[in-house]
User: What shape does this take?
Amino acid sequence: MNEINHANLITLDVRAGLKQGIDPFTEIMAAVKQMSDDKTLQIINTFEPIPLINKLKTMGYESWTERPEPGVIHTYYKKVQSNVQVEDVSENLTPNEQDFQQQLESFCNKTQTLDVRHLEMPEPMVEILKALESLPENHALFVDHKKMPQFLFPELKDRNYSIVANEIDSNHIQLLIYKSTSS
Assistant: This one.
């Protein structure tokens, strides 16, 4: 169990935003960028944010979780490697309908469809990665999502996938995910 210095604790309760469908990623990353090495970030959530834990680990943070009551998870992040460069992890993917349509057409009928709009975080990412594991070679995964899945981008990059997006409206994004061709 890690000791928490409450004077150096920065707390973000993201439950209300998540309930409204607001992804807390930008707010969390802004807090991380502003944190000095002696601070500890506490995220209050309804699930253990494994993608965030993994991302911040690559940025030199250790983490631990506590479950003070059923359905409430506190995840703490403390910098342990100060020489790790904090990269811009937003990896903004700009929706582009023309690129999206061209890529979609290039796969003809070689697509599988997945709608994750009804799922609560982190289930959309889990379902997308699971679907990619069984995706046939030279096929693409067509995903209907309710927002840009920021934590998914580094995972896809690590697994050699490319992604194009098409924004239908503020609550509906189409994603086309396919294996990057290596030359």
About this structure: The CA atoms of residues 124 and 130 lie 10 Å apart. DSSP finds six helices and eight strands in the chain. The chain has two domains: 6-79, 97-179.
